[in-house]
Write a structure and sequence with these properties.
This protein is an alpha/beta fold. Helices cover 37% and strands 27% of the residues. Bound molecules: adenosine-5'-triphosphate (ATP).
Length: 230
């Protein structure tokens, strides 16, 4: 469903991605692992169109989206949960979710309710400003808000950063359940190897803007030490 061919991208004259090739099949969960500053978030931003690729092509469900505006990519079904969550801290939990469903004005409340079924913990806080939730709850809110946009492909950037273990395992269960019920495809950027191991079907390793390795999740976990020093 996503085909990336020889993508180059960066910030002004600063080249970060140097020829990325990547294909995701519908319903696949793929982990993207690498140390800080290797270009993982830059790849996410380039897929969604916050950054324009300087070379190469990206297609989504057979359609070339390389030069397409970000909002159009979102309308096609690409959703991002950014690093740091970026929820609206002064809006209530419910209004955060409504913002996620803003493209579905006809059935907005239905969309929000169906997503909330997967997030019982948020149900208790619907009127509370998002900024007053704990870090883990905010991460769940960011996930839920993205799902309110009915993405076919979710780009999930370092969701476990600073999050307590109980919420991490809740996130794992929730994402598996959502894949079963909607066929969601996931590209997951993470440095937490155990978290990648519990979600991804295969794992790509990025180093200095290049994908240097692809392995099954089992091999990735068995070779954790080797990857840690990559
Ligand atoms: N807005 C920007 N302007 C210039 N350089 C940037 C910008 N954002 C990121 N970079 C640089 O691009 C490189 C890749 O950053 P990126 O955030 O993609 O890495 P990452 O692999 O996601 O790492 P992390 O896990 O720390 O987020 C880094 O050297 C970073 O300093």
């Amino acid at each position: 469903m996503l085909d990336i061919k020889d993508i180059h991208s960066g910030y002004g004259d600063i080249r970060i991605l140097r020829g990325i090739n990547l294909s995701l099949s519908q319903g696949e969960f793929v982990g993207l692992w690498g140390h800080n500053g290797m270009g993982k978030s830059t790849l996410m931003r380039t897929i969604l169109g916050y950054l324009t690729a300087t070379a190469g092509s990206i297609s989504f469900e057979g359609q070339d989206i390389t030069g397409m505006a970000t909002f159009r990519r979102a309308q096609l079904g690409i959703g991002l949960v950014p690093q740091g969550r970026a929820i609206f801290p002064h809006l209530s939990v419910l209004d955060n979710l409504r913002m996620g469903a803003v493209s579905f004005s006809q059935d907005r409340d239905e969309t929000v309710s169906s997503v909330l079924k997967h997030f019982p913990r948020l149900n208790a806080y619907l009127d509370r400003p998002g900024g007053l939730l704990s870090g883990g709850e905010q991460q769940l809110l960011a996930l839920a808000r993205c799902l309110c946009g009915k993405p076919k492909l979710m780009l999930l950037d370092e969701p476990t950063e600073g999050i307590q273990p109980s919420i991490i395992s809740e996130m794992v269960d929730t994402l598996h359940r959502i894949r079963e019920s909607t066929g969601l495809t996931l590209l997951l950027v993470e440095q937490n190897q155990a978290f990648i191991g519990s979600l991804a079907d295969r794992v790509l390793t990025m180093q200095k803007g290049v994908l240097v390795n692809e392995s099954s999740t089992r091999d990735f976990l068995n070779n954790t030490h080797a990857f840690a020093s990559a």
